[in-house]
Amino acid sequence: MPSAATVTFRSEMGEAKGHLARPGKGVPGIVVLQEWWGLVPHIKDVAGRFAAQGYLALAPDLYHGKSTLEAAEAEHLMKDLDWARAAKEIAGAVKHLREVEGATRVGVTGFCMGGALTVIAASQPDVDAYVAFYGFPPAGAVPLDTIEAPGLIFFGEDEPYFSIPDARAFAEAQKARGREAEVIVYPGAGHAFFNDTRPEVYREGAANYAWRRTLDFFGRRLRVG
Fold this sequence. Notes:
Layout (H helix, E strand, L loop, with lengths): L2 E9 L2 E9 L6 E5 L7 H12 L3 E5 L10 H10 L2 H17 L6 E6 L1 H9 L7 E5 L17 E8 L5 H13 L4 E10 L13 H19 L3
Parallel strand pairs: 3-4, 3-5, 5-6, 6-7, 7-8
Antiparallel strand pairs: 1-2, 2-4
């Protein structure tokens, strides 16, 4: 059975903490990035789901102990986030999975704000694959043409916060460069369709399809060699 614990890891910004779900050593790792709510039970549950599938799953606490269930406070927390620091802490989480936990390969996934950070993290050389849920970085946040890792990006068709056309343009540019990237848009779904703790936005069908695609994609990209 997988185990879970709070761990401390090093980054260029100093020590950081996160929730780590472990199935064992010598397996692939996945960094799981939070929505704007913070490191809430839903994100820990997603890490646990990955661990149940045989992945080391580390969800870094990018808000450093803060979280909320209130949208206004979540917006405030996200606006106060130092994205450059977050990117370095994510890099530290990737390094921790590789060097301390013994992960053979490492992927990154994230939701909303964490989806945008997932694409940013994909520009780092030690990331082997990425899956972003309903998030994409704003123009200029990262040199997108430096991303070599293969990736998937999921949206619901009713997406009010992030640009689906920008994500599609990125995917087409990646394909033109010989890099794997795909944007998948689910009809009848909106933002946060994967979050089963929020019944007002959760869409079971889209969530199940996206989860199966995620496991298949990471299975092909992280369970190699």
